[in-house]
Amino acid sequence: MTTSFNLNGKQVTVKAEPDTPLLWVIRDEIGLTGTKFGCGMALCGACTVQLDGAPIRSCQTPVSAAAGKKVATVESLSKDNSHPLQKAWIAHDVPQCGYCQSGQLMSAAALLRTNKNPSDADIENAMSGNICRCGTYNRIRAAIKSAAAEMRKA
Amino acid sequence: MTTTRRDFLKVTALVGGGLTLGVSLPGAVSNVQAAGTLHTPNAWVHIADDNTITLISARSEMGQGVYTSMPMLIAEELGVDIRKIKVEIAPVGEVYTNALLGGQLTGGSTSVRDGWEKLRVAGAQVRTMLVTAAAQKWNVDAATLKAGDGKVTGPGGRKATYGELADAASKLPVPKDVVLKDPKDFKIIGKPTKRLDTPRKVNGTAVFGIDVKLPGMVYASLEQCPVIGGKVVSFDASKAKAMLGVIDVVQIRDGVAVVADSYWHAKKAREAVTVTWDEGAGAAIDNASMMDGIRNAKDAPTPIKKTGDADAAMKSAAKTMQAEYWSPLLAHATMEPQNFTADYKDGKCLVIGPAQFQQGTQGNVAAAVGLKPEDVTVQTTFLGGGFGRRLEYDFAVQAAQISKAVGKPVKLLWSREDDTTHDFYRPMAFHRMAAGLDAAGKPVALTFQLTSQSVTQRAFGLPKGTLDPFMAEAAVVGYDIPNMTQELIEHDSGLRVGYWRSVSHALNAFANESFIDELAAAAGKDPYQYRLALLDKQPRFANVLKIAATKAGWGKPLAPGRSRGIALMEGYDTYMAQVAEISVKDNEITVHKMWVAADLGRMVNPDTVEAQIESSIAFGLSSVLGSEITLDKGRVQQTNFHDYPVIRMSQMPRIDVTLVKSTEKPGGIGEPATALVGPAVANALFAATGKRVRKLPLSPDNIKSA
User: Fold this and answer.
1) With an 8 Å Cβ cutoff, is B271 touching chain A?
2) Which of the two ends of chain A, N or C, has the fewest CB atoms closer than 10 A to its terminal CB?
């Protein structure tokens, strides 16, 4: 039994059993390790990826749910850090340990897909599922606003 | 690890007593990637023929920014553009010992304090060697040459890159005496500098322990006794062994490991293993018995400091006050669950992962798999948080034992539940405070007694009855009180305990700074003015207190429902004051804003300093608002972020940081702000409600029952 889906623009077929969490398929079978494991219970958001553009917790999403769909991980933003969110993250020096930031970025990217000018409340709502133990929250909020402003100009 | 213990204790006694300079030894072979031949003039600098310059950080990057600040110190004297260098985390080596802690370890907010002088000396040594090499090459006086921006220039337009000179320079003797720059000429140190590790932390390429992959590697999930310290009596793995992808099931010291071709297969099969445990003495512990044991501890007190005669002054005081404070057990909850990768092969062992204490990892892995320390290679990845948890090496030892048992490279990964239930917890703490006030309400006597468990006894074999310096942190206040005694009771509650960000500063500052607030209230004085009046002889304390109060608008009217609290401390050679502005609804606290004033002497990267203050406040606030570990029948009752909550973005206060310009020696900044959140918020809670909550966390339950 295999599962096929689109990962970061490329079609992939994986062998993992259908109930395997998408997280472990992406990390261990495909070998893309930007997406992180934090809690295994969809509580911390470190494993956030996008499924057809919506932010999901890949630790609680079976790979079968991705069949035929588009999955995007942090690696999809850009390799050269040219995505407005990556640029804003660098400009605001957001990451500390950095472990949660892939998930933070993917939640933020999903927010900016549908909301080009998010308020503080919009941001706090969209980011409420992502824990940062280093407490980079204020910088994340500021960076999302910077990225949104840049994306509005583009 | 007897050497480390001895060194640790020897050096511990000298904390604050001056730095040791030992930078001229060659470093161990590094796995630096560079084009061309690599030259290593000293342990901190590698220069390749193609002018690729790699600077070594001997400290682990766990978010605090050493990957940038350590190279900045070297680069300042070496004369290279910080944006053009590469950074490598050091291998294990004596030369990389942290002189403030006596081992190669990252903690105690020591990285800049330890590196401040020796890393600049290291950079200056290499610069001097490069200049000497150029002078010999061109047959000119070295005094006519200039070094900077990665090259040496001389009369007549002579020019050579460091790469061109590195081979000759690395054959020269290392100069003993080098002249360091006057700080007014610093081009890098003290300038806000973008972190060098950010680019790879925003595109998924930063390698954490969990991301390590070795050829032929298999995955392990470890079932440990629900009571920490319990041992395997027997286990049945017949079902697990038949499951998809399972390679083996092996017993090690701490439990039963399922090894499989993927983490998921290992984890699923682990659920099918049944283990019979000997739970050991730990099974008798619960919260009530721990609190009872601490309150009634019969262990002899260890004096910290005695000033004047507190007993006599207490007897003649116009008024006396007593109060008791409790701080709970806490877990570290690093975002990256504990993990390590090990490859035991042919009498050698390679271990790779997130480590705060490289020598401890090396020595203990070696002992556990029967090798000499030199046959164990430790490679340090990025750490997905440390906070003291990764000063331990239990997970590295386990990975090595599993690898040895199955004869394959193994990545051991703990689940979040494993992590929360098998931490080395911040010890529970109990404070008895007493004070005597004169007729005007001014304190004439203060006594402080902490009862808690010594981490240092467990971690470094500190003999019982010896003062654990990490318990005495911030015990002695800066206030001018003529008669004081501070003492501690080291009481072993039976649960394994660990160093937790800011260690005892958080425990002791909560008691001291809550109690001084109580004295102010008893005297009918404003808590800020009351403190300030006791700081005439302490300009650095007084200064940060005034700044924080002024910036917060202390004394000015507040929005309806808002209140303020203030707190003050010196820790890690850093003077800091915080003001919290909060509101309370249905016994739930919202912290709206925090003002921080910090005087930490000279700074290397002020932007990182601010980030560390923000981070420490978030970390402290999580523990203040609701995190708490509790025990029942020796089992930790919390398992994941639903019952061990940490703050989310909506709970993060706005933070206003003022950094005092100073030419004092650098102080540490990774931790102190953590410690002041508790008392600042508790004091604001008192201002809001008149309730003095003396038990952390400041949860609705504890507020209600106060």
Assistant:
1) no
2) C
